[in-house]
Amino acid sequence: MAERADKPQRSDDAKTPDDLRRENERLGREVERLRRENERLKKELEAVRRAGKRQAAPFSKGAPTRPPKKPGRRVGRRHGRHAHREPPPHIDDTIDVPLQAHCPDCGGALAETRVADQIQEDIPVVRPHVRRFRVHIGCCRHCGRRVQGRHPLQTSDALGAASAHLGPQAVALIVLLNKFLGLSHGKIATLLRDWFGLTVRPSAVTHVLHRAARQAAPTYDALRDAIRASPVVSPDETSWKVAGHLQWLWAFATPSVILYAIQAGRGFPQAAAILGTDFDGVLVRDGWAPYRRFAHAAHQTCLTH
Q: Which of 186, 199, 218, 285 sits most deeply, having the most CB atoms within 10 A of its CB?
């Protein structure tokens, strides 16, 4: 065994034709294995790309499992709590449902044994409630300025050709459908037309959202001031598309307030537009370099990062 250990290794030039043939076969098998692995990874990558796009079944998680789980409730502790729809606290209408005159099977006489309640909640048929404001217009006798009346329910001061507007309830619903539920302007117009009888074009939905944003500007400024005054702020940013162009969605979170801002960049100027350049609270952040430029702040690295 000692003589074999001391025996020098044979160089590649000293390999026999059989050794080279076996080595060539081994390398060929390795190349084929890598080729199959490459094809498999390409298919997986393509599947991931397709999954990111909208499909007919957007919540599909792939092929069914084999064998599938048994349907229905579990037994024992995993059975869960039986739930049912709770009756509403008030009744708007009561409809009496009497027995039929005869038994539907044999035609015999029926004897009533009890009366049971069934509760139904439904959405009433909605038609637009149209208000007409008789706006009084005048002018100042001292300076000549034109002045017109304003009611709290009015959503605009426009008159003449632009005198037909949507009311505050419709505006609030449009903002909710778009910003909270994510409906497009076209779908919102269709919903308002088919379910509420409001004829609205998608461009009008856009106009309503812009007008609501202008009205909410003072509230937004107050939230930004609350962010700047907070002792602890957690900022973060992520990519966001606006009309197909890359923008950045910034989020600034405190224990009581969360503020969002869509901005063109993800650098220090965009962060300072919300926090202010002299922010001196605790900045709980990841390792993104622009956050380090807040020289007056105390920096806490996010524990998740």
A: 285
The Cα–Cα gap between 227 and 275 comes to 7
- Structural tokens at position 171: 């505006």
pLDDT digits (tens, 9 = 90+) for 79-96: 777 777 788 888 989 999
Tokens for 241, please give them: 């598309």
CA–CA separation, 153 vs 175, rounded Å? 17
Is the separation of the CB atoms in 242 and 221 below 8 Å?
no
Mark whether 242 and 297 lie in a shared domain.
yes
For the chain, state the CA radius of gyration: 35
How many residues make up the chain in this entry?
A: 305
Average pLDDT over the chain, rounded to an integer: 86
Mean pLDDT of 116-144: 89
| d(C-alpha 15, C-alpha 5), whole Å | 19
- Give the SS3 label for residue 227: helix
As for how many domains the chain has, the answer is: 2
Number of alpha helices (DSSP H) and beta strands (DSSP E) in the chain: 7, 7
Answer yes or no: do 276 and 243 share one domain: yes
pLDDT value of position 217: 92
Note down the domain range covering 293: 219-301
